[in-house]
C-alpha cells in the first residue's frame, strides 16, 4: 500500500502528487537534503551500488531522477511493508510522465502543470502493478477508464473466477448492463453463498443452466437462486446435484445455507420475493421491476465484442486497450537507455577526408563553444582531471567519485560560447569541490561557548562548561592543535581547563603541562582568560578521567554548584574543557571501542578529529572508522547521525598546494573541515576558506 | 564594358536623375543598415529581484505565488529557478505614482524576473554569485520564517546569512574598483508565516535580527583568521569586515544607509489556512515602489 507518489522539480516545486495517506512534509525534505544535497549515503562506503531507497522515521522512500529535465520522482510507503513493484512503478511513471508532458517540459522555467491529465494513467498503472493482498481499496480514486463490470469483491469469488473457464460470449451485449445491479453491488459482495462452480463430473440440469446463464463473476449466486426459484427448487443454494460445489464452497459450514434476507430502504426485512431485479438471464422473469426497466434502451444498443476494446486483468477489471497496451509494453521492456544517442555520429568507414573534416569541425566547435558534450568528448579531459586530482593528494576513491559526478552532470549539456571542453570541465569541477567543502552550517565556536556557559533556558538548565574533545590516530598533532585552540580561546577571555586524557603514552601529561605553563604566561600578559591542567597520571581509564574533569569544571562540590547555579556562569569554575585523548590506530577494534564509552561518559559538545594533510589514501578509512564510533546510549550516532563535528587538518604548511586530504576526508564522511593547522606556534590556527582551498586544488 | 563605362559616366555626371538616385541611396542605406542591425534589438533588460533566505522559509512557495497567482506545494530546492512575474493590478507601480486614481487609460503593469535560490547551507553560492554578477538587479528579497526566528538556532542561522549578505553589499559599495559606485540594491526582509501561532510580528523580528547580527559581527571580528588570508589584498582589514558603523555596540539597519543599502522588514504569509489565501500586499507594495 503506497502512501504517496510525488513528482517535483530540482528547484523544489511539486508538479504532481498523489497521496493515499497524509505524509509529513519533512520526509521528502529530508530525502532531498540528506541524499541529493549532502550525499550522506557515501558514508556507508558502499560504492558499488547506488542505493535508491532511503528511510526516515517509519517511511521508506524510493526515487528516480530525470536529469535532463530536472525532475525527481519519489514514492513513499511504510517501512513495515515490502513492496517489490515500486521500482517498476517509478520507472513506468517517469516514462509516461515525460511522454505526456513533453511540450511543457521542453520550455524553460517551468513552475506549473495541469495535473489532471496524468491522473488516469497513474491510476491504471497502479491498478495493474498492485495485485497483491496489500492492495488498497480504490475508493478515493476514480474508478478508471473502462470499468464496465462490477469487480469481484470477495476473495473466494476472485479465486474461483480465475479458476473457472472463461464464460462463453454472452448472448446479450455487455452494454446492456443495467444500472440497478451496479447499485446493488454491495449486496452481491456480502453474499454469503459463493459462486457454485459447475462440477462437470456431476452434470445435471440446474448446473448446466447456471453455466450458460453466467455472464460475470459475482452474479452467479443471485442468478443461481433466481434460477432455482424459477425452477421451483428449494432455497438450498446450489442445486442438489452439486453437492461437491456446495461442500467446497461452504468450507466449515454445516447444514443448509441460510436463506438470504433482503432489506428494503426503510430497514425492514423483506419477506418473500416481490421484485426480480436480475435482468441478465435471457429467460428471466419478465421485468416487473419498475425502476429502470422502462427507461433502459439496452435493446437498442448493437452488439459489441468486448475483446476488441481491451482486455481483462485477472481480477476481472476491464482496461481499455490503448492504455493497457502502453503500460504492458512498458512493463515488459523497461527502457534502459538513459542518454540520448550521441549527436556526433562517428563515421563507420574512416576515410581520410571524413576524419579530417570531423577533426576540424570538432576543433572549431571546441573553440567556439555551443558544443553538445558526449561521453567520448569527456573521456580524455576527465582522465586528465583525475590524474590532476590524484597528484594533489586526493584519495583515489574520492577522485573517482568526483569525476563520475562531474561527468554525469555535464553529459549532454552544451558548452557556453567560446569556452572549450576543458574550461567547462574545470568550471564544473570547481563547483563540485566548492559544494563538497562548504559546510551545511558554519561553526561559530565563540558563540556556541558563550551560549552554553551563560544561558539559563526556560527548562531551568544550569549553565555548564563547553566540552571539546580531540581524537585522531597517532602522531597527527592532537596535543599541539589542542594548545593552539586553547590559545585562541584564551585570547577571547574564556577560562580553559585542559584535561590530560592520554593516560597511555609516555610523556603525554608532561607535554601538556609545559603547554599549559606557556599559555598561562601568555594569558597573564593579555587576553583575560585563565588556564589550568587536570591530570590523573598514567594508567587510568580515560573516560573516567574525562568525566571527573567535567564535573570538576562544572563547579566541583554540590554546594558550590547549587549556590552559583543561575546567572552568568558564576558557578562554573571553567568555561571550556578541552580533553586530549590517546592516539589510536583506526583499525584497532579494542581501542576504537573505548571511544564510544568515552563519548557516553564525557558528553562532549564537540568532537574534533585531527588528520594530517600528509596522509594519503588512508585518510578515508581513518575518517570513516572514527566517525562511526561515536554512538550515544541509544546506539544512534551523535550529532544527527554524523558522528563527529569537524576535522582539524594539521601540518598544512608542509604540503603546499597538495591539500587533497581536505577533500578525501570530507567526501568520505560528510563532516566539514573546521580548522587548519599551519605551523607549530600557538597562533598558527586558521579557519577554512573554501575559495582558497579550491583555488589551490585546481591550480 | 561600354555599358559599365556608360553607367559610371552617368553616375558621376551632374544630371538630375543621378542626383536623385544618390540622394535616395545615401538616405535609405543607413536606415536599412540600422534596421538590420537592430532588428533583434536587445529587449530592455527586465529588472531582476533575487530571493534568498535560510532553508524552509518559503521562498519557492513565494515564487509560485508571484508567478502563477496561487502557491503550490514545494520541497527543499536544489537549484535556482527563475520566473517572470507581473505586479498585480491592485498594486501601484512606481512609474504610475503620479497618475490619478481615476485615470482610466489602460496601463500594463510592469514585469520583472524573480530568481529563487536554494537556502541550504551548501548551495548558497548560487545566491552570492548571482548577487555579484547579475545585471539589472533591482532588489533583494530576504525571506525569514517568523516562527523559526523565535528559536535560538533559527535566529542564528537567519542572522548569519543576513550578515553575510549585507557585508557583501557593503563591500560592493565601499571597495569598488572604479570611482563610480555601483547602483544601490535595496533589501526587503520578508517575515513569512505570520499566520502561524508562534510567529513573531515583523517589528520584533527586526529587533531580534539586529541584536543577533550585532553578536555575529562581534564574534566574526574576534574569530580566527581565514586560511585565505593572502588571497584578497584589501579584504583583510578590520574595518572592511565590520558591518555598519565601525566600532558601534549595537547594530541597526539604519547604519546600512551610509552604504546605500535600505533595509525594510515587512510581514505577511504566503499560504493562509483554509480558503483565505496569503497576505502578500505589503510585499507587492515594496516591489512596486522599488522596481
UniProtKB/TrEMBL annotation, chain B:
UniProt keyword Membrane, yes or no: yes
Ranges annotated as spanning the membrane: 12-37
GO cellular component: endoplasmic reticulum membrane
Membrane topology summary: Single-pass membrane protein
Keyword set, alphabetical order: Endoplasmic reticulum, GTP-binding, Membrane, Nucleotide-binding, Receptor, Transmembrane, Transmembrane helix
A Pfam family hit: SRPRB
Domain of life: Eukaryota
CDD domains found in the cross-reference section: SR_beta (cd04105)
GO MF annotation terms: GTP binding
Primary site of residence: endoplasmic reticulum
Compartments, record wording: Endoplasmic reticulum membrane
InterPro entries: P-loop_NTPase, SRP_receptor_beta_su
UniProt similarity note: Belongs to the SRP receptor beta subunit family.
Protein name: Signal recognition particle receptor subunit beta
Species, as recorded: Meristemomyces frigidus
